[in-house]
UniProtKB/TrEMBL annotation:
<keyword id="KW-0210">Decarboxylase</keyword>
<dbReference type="Pfam" id="PF01293">
    <property type="entry name" value="PEPCK_ATP"/>
</dbReference>
<feature type="binding site">
    <location>
        <position position="216"/>
    </location>
    <ligand>
        <name>Mn(2+)</name>
    </ligand>
</feature>
<feature type="binding site">
    <location>
        <position position="444"/>
    </location>
    <ligand>
        <name>ATP</name>
    </ligand>
</feature>
<feature type="binding site">
    <location>
        <position position="191"/>
    </location>
    <ligand>
        <name>substrate</name>
    </ligand>
</feature>
<dbReference type="InterPro" id="IPR001272">
    <property type="entry name" value="PEP_carboxykinase_ATP"/>
</dbReference>
<feature type="binding site">
    <location>
        <position position="57"/>
    </location>
    <ligand>
        <name>substrate</name>
    </ligand>
</feature>
<keyword id="KW-0312">Gluconeogenesis</keyword>
<keyword id="KW-0479">Metal-binding</keyword>
<keyword id="KW-0464">Manganese</keyword>
<feature type="binding site">
    <location>
        <position position="319"/>
    </location>
    <ligand>
        <name>ATP</name>
    </ligand>
</feature>
<keyword id="KW-0456">Lyase</keyword>
<keyword id="KW-0547">Nucleotide-binding</keyword>
<comment type="function">
    <text>Involved in the gluconeogenesis. Catalyzes the conversion of oxaloacetate (OAA) to phosphoenolpyruvate (PEP) through direct phosphoryl transfer between the nucleoside triphosphate and OAA.</text>
</comment>
<keyword id="KW-0963">Cytoplasm</keyword>
<dbReference type="GO" id="GO:0004612">
    <property type="term" value="F:phosphoenolpyruvate carboxykinase (ATP) activity"/>
</dbReference>
<comment type="pathway">
    <text>Carbohydrate biosynthesis; gluconeogenesis.</text>
</comment>
Length: 530
């Protein structure tokens, strides 16, 4: 049993006569979740839950304690600060709110590389949240444990309401991280993704200090054992495109790139299930039918309890949390070698970007720092329809340091590895959102495979006039018209106007990041959009 050094956390455990035993397995947690109410079994035995008002993350309610360690390191333009005294009050009050409740404890690992590992303890009054995080992180014994992993504690008090005047929070909801002691308090939200992403945020702060590039990406291997990375925000296709029976999966969301290669931070998958089908995504669909899988905000048929993945009445951000072990093809040890291919995924809501483009190393860093995509409805609170957005490093809410830190590390990794880089648009063609159509998954998979298997290495390319990247003129099995988005628009002048507008948005966004040399890898437009 871990010896907690912080007195508040120690008291939260030692004084609780009704404290539940630690590290309970799926059958016990499922039974207790059902007994507590608010959860039900699907027809296939997965656990179905809802998260109330919060069906996505609440990034504006995230805080980092400003202290001697963080004050000169954290990107405060992107992160709200909380004082050490405010955090101590929050920790004490949140802990006190759990005094009369059973606590579920999970002792887990984050980081498949034993040299770069966290020992994560999650304390929660919710059995289904305990099951969720047990699915998402690494169970001890599944991989080699490091000799002295950094200790992390997450206190999850979903029903506790923070007091902005007392705790320094913005609202009654708060996600507060103390980077010096690796303690996290999550209060006022049932959305389980906050637990998962708090671990990632801690990793993103500490990893660069140990010469590890933290990445919001999925990763898999080809038959030769070569590693490919897939960067992208929620809804761009990371999980879907990296799940390929022919390519063992390292992980679907969070990774580190050390000098030796890539390792998964997690031990599970948190897949979007909106419009999920057995034909298009058989591996993910099968995982949603496993006992122990947690389905978030998925509507069930009231009679049969069969999930309806097309019903978005609760949210479009429906999710399945399951252990990576249920997938048919996974990489041994959740590690891979130095990547030879890097893919940036974007869901272009403007319908401007081509479905695939080859990037120079400089362009790769530019698009990494830009992190352009569309916010998909429901992924964040208050977003009701897709909106064009830029999120640095394809994960700004989880990146405590300035994007330039991560950008410089990626540039060095690309130089040393010689990895090829590609931009793939999984968004719209023939017009923007509401006018055009979403690029079909089969075409995206075909283009991705052509990039991964070397088929496009010698392909004839055209240079995009605005963005400067190289676009293949022909790919077997793909209509040539699709490769040139301008040709898919009924009104080409409208496309030109939209393309210039988007290029201008890129320029405007990049002003806060890079030098003139960095910006030179972006769109060639004289003036930013108004």
């Amino acid at each position: 049993m871990r010896d907690f050094s912080h007195p508040t956390l120690r008291a939260a455990i030692e004084t609780r006569a009704t404290y539940c035993s630690a590290n309970e397995v799926a059958p016990a947690l499922v039974a207790k979740a059902l007994s507590a109410g608010g959860a039900t079994l699907t027809a296939d035995g997965a656990l179905s839950v809802t998260t109330g008002a919060f069906t996505g993350r609440s990034p504006k309610d995230k805080f980092i304690v400003r202290d001697a360690l963080t004050k000169d390191k954290v990107w405060w333009d992107n992160t709200a600060a909380m004082s050490p005294n405010q955090f101590e009050l929050l920790l004490a009050d949140a802990s006190a709110s759990l005094a009369d409740k059973d606590l579920f404890r999970q002792d887990l690992l984050a980081g498949a590389d034993p040299r770069h590992q966290f020992a994560v303890t999650v304390l929660t009054p919710s059995a289904w949240h305990a099951l969720f995080i047990a699915n998402l992180l690494i169970r001890p014994g599944d991989i080699e444990r490091g000799t002295s992993p950094a200790e992390v504690t997450i206190l999850h008090a979903p029903h506790f309401k923070a007091d902005p005047a007392r705790h320094g929070s913005r609202t009654e909801t708060v996600i507060a991280l103390d980077m010096s002691r690796n303690i996290v308090v999550i209060a006022g939200t049932l959305y389980a993704g906050e637990i998962k992403k708090s671990v990632f945020s801690l990793f993103n702060f500490h990893a660069p200090l140990n010469d590890v590039l933290p990445m919001h990406c999925s990763a898999n291997l080809n038959e030769k054992g070569e590693t490919a990375l897939f960067f992208g925000l929620s809804g761009t296709g990371k999980t879907t495109l990296s799940n390929d029976p022919a390519r063992p999966l390292i992980g679907d969301d969070e990774h580190g790139w050390s000098t030796d290669g890539v390792f998964n931070l997690e031990g599970g998958c948190y897949a979007k299930t909106v419009k999920l089908s057995a034909n298009a995504e058989p591996e993910i669909f099968a995982a949603t039918r496993k006992f122990g899988t947690v389905l978030e905000n998925v509507v069930l048929d009231p009679t049969t309890h069969v999930p309806d993945f097309n019903d978005t009445s609760l949210t479009e951000n429906t999710r399945a949390a399951y252990s990576i072990e249920v997938l048919p093809s996974i990489a041994k040890g959740s590690i891979g070698g130095v990547p030879n291919t890097v893919v940036f995924l974007t869901a272009d809501a403007f319908g401007v970007l081509p479905p695939i483009a080859r990037l120079t190393p400089e362009q790769a860093v530019y698009h990494f720092l830009s992190g352009y995509t569309a916010k998909v409805a429901g992924t964040e609170r208050g977003v009701t329809e897709p909106q064009a957005t830029f999120s640095a490093c394809f994960g700004a809410p989880f990146m405590p340091l300035h994007p330039g830190v991560y950008g410089e590390m990626l540039a060095e990794r690309l130089r040393s590895s010689g990895a090829g880089a590609w931009l793939i648009n999984t968004g719209w063609t023939g017009g923007g959102y509401g006018v055009g159509r979403r690029i079909d998954l089969a075409s995206t998979r075909r283009l991705l495979n052509a990039a991964l298997n070397g088929e496009l290495d010698g392909a004839e390319m055209r240079e995009d006039e605005l963005f400067g990247f190289a676009v293949p003129k022909a790919v077997k099995g793909i209509a040539p018209k699709l490769l040139n988005p301008r040709q898919t628009w009924a009104d080409t002048s409208a496309y030109d106007q939209q393309a210039e507008h988007l290029a201008g948005l890129f320029q405007q966004n990049f002003v806060k990041f890079g030098t003139d040399a960095d910006a030179a890898a972006g769109p060639k437009l004289a003036h930013a959009a108004e």
